[in-house]
Amino acid sequence: MQTFFSALRDHLQREPSKTFEAPGLELKEAAVLAPLYWRDGEPFALMTKRPMTLRKHPGQISFPGGGREHGDLTPLHTALRETEEELGIDPAQVDVLGLLGAMPTVTSYWVTPFVGVVPETVTLKPNPGEIAEVIHAPLWRLRREKREIYQADRDVFVWDDAKHVVWGATWRMLDQLLDHVEAVRRVA
Description:
Helix 1 (2-14) crosses helix 3 (168-187). This protein is 24% helix and 32% strand. The mean pLDDT is 91. It starts with a helix and ends with a helix. By secondary structure, it is α+β, with helices and mostly antiparallel strands.
């Protein structure tokens, strides 16, 4: 487990993900954290399903994160603050491995995604105002598929019984993360 995450840290630093371009757009800064942990011989990512009552991205699956606030010194501060607000994970429990390529979203954000490891036994305290469900995504069992979402064919990730579907900006982040995870898995 530690060997895998150490190799993932090295790979993220040695072969950084491509940052998407967004010339000329005025975007608000945001950041997310992909919290990873090891269980039963494989890596998992903690993801969240947003409540249907939210104005932005209702019902969608995402990594914990959000917009940069005035007191956030860096995007990493934003990602860690938001992860604590949404899931109750103390920033001291996160071993930050690196980051993925930053990207624009259709909701006018410039998102910087970070990757970190949390203990498998971390105590989660989901904020019911922001989180409808905590999802444990098995990274080695994710499948790429096409699904129609909002009258358009989209690339998605599903797993096991396909109850959960990841698409959009979170799909792009997860796609980058899986490129790194699979490269490390092939070498291990």
